[in-house]
Amino acid sequence: MLYLVKFFYQTFLLPPGCIILLLALASFWQYKKKTQKYTKFFVIIAVILYVVSTPIICDNLIWSLEGKFKPPSEPNGDVIIMLGGGAYADTPNVNGKGHLSSIASNRLLTCIQLYHKLDVPIIISGGQIPGHTNSEAEIAKNILLGLGIPEEKIIVENRSLNTTQNAIYTKELIEKHGFNEPILVTSAFHMERAVRQFRKNEVNVTPYPTDFQTNSIRRVTFMDFVPSAEALQKFYFSVKEYVGIVASKWY
């Protein structure tokens, strides 16, 4: 029953399902009016939107990125590097203001878990939030302090605005502090592009992927064929990463 309710509101009430349905109705209407050109147009748009917002397609697309690296069973290193993934500057929080996005929060949680295993410093890499003066790295630091991580164990890199700069500016801190075995923490779908940038800047990292968007073992269910905004977001993440991987050869 629950799946039927979910199917109903995702298909008929929420985008992109309701938009696909409207496009299908528009194509049928144009077909009845015998306007072939517009019928084909609405059908093509509906099919494209369905493909890019359906879990059976999008989950497998992002899964192809997430399977490139596995977290080591016994991680070992002398510093943990966390790459930023978005933040909100002025939202009220327990210890001051600012929140990390869900993506960045997952990365931070993994860094905290690794910290408790290894007792090594954490480098937080994340620059200024658009439209605000504070940075993502400073917000993450404030959260870490509130969770009891000592200030001397937190190193802030607050200049980087993309993955390329994450690697460049973090390398400077690695060299400054004499670290030799950095562990890189970022989302699993983002890990390949991040590793490429660090290697391009001659930094050897141990990848520790987190923030997985799919299960490691894919099991197809009825809902995998129902379009959803979540699947559409996974399509966006996947395309962005594949474009970034190609672009990383030159930038």
Tell me briefly what this model is.
The chain has 251 residues and is of the alpha/beta class. The protein has helices at 2-13, 17-32, 36-52, 55-66, 102-118, 136-146, 163-177, 191-200, 229-247; strands spanning 79-83, 87-93, 96-100, 122-125, 154-157, 182-187, 206-210. Helix 1 (2-13) crosses helix 2 and helix 2 packs antiparallel against helix 3.
Structure description:
The mean pLDDT is 93. It contains 9 helices and 7 strands; from the N terminus they run ααααβββαβαβαβαβα. It is elongated and about 70 Å long. With 251 residues, the chain is an alpha/beta fold.
How many helices does DSSP assign?
9
The CA-CA distance between the termini, in Å, is 50 Å
Mean pLDDT: 93
Structural class determined from secondary elements: alpha/beta
Helix content: 40-55%
- Percentage of β-strand residues: 5-15%
Give the biggest sheet: 5 strands, parallel
Kindly report the spatial arrangement of strands forming the biggest sheet: 5-4-1-6-7
- Round the Cα radius of gyration to an integer and report it: 22 Å
Overall shape: elongated
Count of extended strands: 7
Q: What pattern of helices and strands is seen along the backbone?
A: HHHHEEEHEHEHEHEH
Low-pLDDT windows of residues: none
Write the layout of secondary structure elements.
Elements: H1 2-13, H2 17-32, H3 36-52, H4 55-66, E1 79-83, E2 87-93, E3 96-100, H5 102-118, E4 122-125, H6 136-146, E5 154-157, H7 163-177, E6 182-187, H8 191-200, E7 206-210, H9 229-247
Helix pairs in contact: 1-2, 2-3, 4-9, 7-8
